[in-house]
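Protein modeling request. Please complete all fields; requests missing the sequence field cannot be processed.
Requester role: graduate student
Desired output: 3D structure, token encoding
Chains: 1
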Amino acid sequence: MEAVLKILGLLVVVYAALVAGCTVIQRSLMYFPDPSLPSPAAAGAPGFQAVTYQTADGLELVSWYRPAKKGPTGRDLATIVYFQGNGGNIAGRIFKTRPLFEAGYGLMLVGYRGYGGNPGKPSEEGLYYDARAAMAYLQDQGLAMDDLVLLGESLGSGVAVRMAWETRVRAVMLEAPYTSTVDVGQSAYFFLPVGLLMYDRFPSIDLIADIQAPLLVVHGEQDGVIPTRLGRRLFQAASQPKEAHFLPGAGHNDMFEHGLTDIELEFLAQLPD
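Delivered output (273 residues):
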């Protein structure tokens, strides 16, 4: 009996150390920035310019921006504000957004703090600061909030939802979204009390019903990173008008190969001027 108690005590100590260690390093398990960033020209991003602006907490960030072209009615097409996922940098999103900007839509690829040579370290509140600053920059260029379509990829879906909750925009498009990052983390680390430990929670499920803008959700049925059931729950909680596409053969990073941008272009074309 004494030996069993010693083993149990050792297991408790090991588990406590694991929990403490994961708590300390959790942001390094959540954000995977590429600190380098080529020029738009070197990345094959025609018509983009690197723009700078300051966040409310004093960071000067670089993003890439390409203005919209005029549509058939003579009015400028919508400008898409793109909030990337947790890995890489904005240069890695050119290939998948090319059909959008080649169709004439404006595009702001938002550079997060700690990504692509930008100062600071990423966090939930920090990314909200970054998003607000990017949208304020576009306002300074003469764009109204009604000119903006927010596009959130994976982690960035939580940023897009929060911004759409704070400000009414023309539309919202979410790629592989989630209910909250707590739910994503608990799915991946089922053996840890994630709900008690997590700093950056991105609670989209608490905000989505209040968004008063057309919503598009696209999620791969084979997603091994963000379970599709979380995307379905978020979509079900959202208000109308909304539409969803759950792609049978797609995973987390290959929706582009399963018609993602065709779906987004069709959605954008149906938006009222």
